[in-house]
Amino acid sequence: MDGEIVTALIGLAGSALGSVLGVMASARLTHYRLGQLEQKVDKHNRVIERTFKLEERASVIEEDVKAAAQRLAALERART
Question: What is the torsion angle, in degrees rounded to the nearest 10, for the CA atoms of residue 45, residue 47, residue 52 and residue 54?
Answer without folding.
Answer: 160
